[in-house]
Amino acid sequence: MSEALLEVEKLSAGYGDARVLDDVSFRLDQGGSLALLGRNGMGKTTLLTSLIGLTRRHGGRIRLAGRDLTAVPTHRRALAGLGWVPQERDIFPSLTVEENLTAIATGGAWTLDRVYDLFPRLMERRSNMGNQLSGGEQQMLAIARALMLDPKVLLLDEPMEGLAPLIVQELFRIIQRMIERDGLAVILVEQHAHQILPLTRDAMILERGRVVYSGDSRRLIDEPALLDRWLGVGAVELDDGTSA
Ligand SMILES: Nc1ncnc2c1ncn2[C@@H]1O[C@H](COP(=O)(O)OP(=O)(O)OP(=O)(O)O)[C@@H](O)[C@H]1O
């Protein structure tokens, strides 16, 4: 078996003495894509924040590109290649779009031109301040900023959350291009399974901090009973494309 890009082994972590994640193991290969699913409060965000070292680890190991990151501090994990786009869309509100991007550029594979090619809307808005952008544009900028740090794996926490349907479609196409055209390895947390399962190769479902499904995304699409069992009504798609 080829060496995994990201390998998480029996990770247990939480806040103080409270253990939220219990024995979580998975691997992500080069160019892989993983949908991280689960109902509210099941530990999806905690898994992402544990990968970047923001929670208390109770046990387990994290390796990225052959390097053990388990004891590495958060800022060094970013430099090592874990790109993190939090739900809060962490951008500089009083810098322009372009300044937001160039302030943190590392001179890696993701140049300004390449980022603008992926996000034409950011190119159009490059002189606007961060706080003059719509919610969807801020989300794009948050993702673009993470790319400028040249990640090996991009962690996206509910990127479509609270956005209007048209911008969700645009963002969806951009994420699809990152995965399929650019071969970027991505872990995507999402409440609405049906929206992202067609995008990702693999899926993992968390239930009270434990992995209850780990396998093909396709299987979850083909067997709605599985999704219904772990995600309940939220997984049921309505005729208008939204979920209940
Ligand atoms: N900063 C924190 N301090 C203490 N407990 C927390 C903290 N953040 C989350 N938790 C708890 O950890 C558990 C998992 O929360 P988490 O946010 O990881 O779930 P989630 O699956 O991402 O949910 P959601 O979809 O609502 O974001 C919950 O019981 C939550 O209350």
Automatic annotation (TrEMBL):
The keyword Nucleotide-binding applies. The keyword Transport applies. Residues 6-233 form the ABC transporter domain. GO terms for molecular function: ATP binding. InterPro entries: AAA+_ATPase, ABC_transporter-like_ATP-bd, ABC_transporter-like_CS, BCAA_Transport_ATP-bd_LivF, P-loop_NTPase. It comes from the Bacteria. It holds the Pfam family ABC_tran. Signal peptide: none annotated. Keywords: Amino-acid transport, ATP-binding, Nucleotide-binding, Transport. Gene3D superfamilies: P-loop containing nucleotide triphosphate hydrolases. PANTHER family: ABC TRANSPORTER ATP-BINDING PROTEIN, HIGH-AFFINITY BRANCHED-CHAIN AMINO ACID TRANSPORT ATP-BINDING PROTEIN LIVF. Belongs to the ABC transporter superfamily. This is ABC transporter ATP-binding protein.
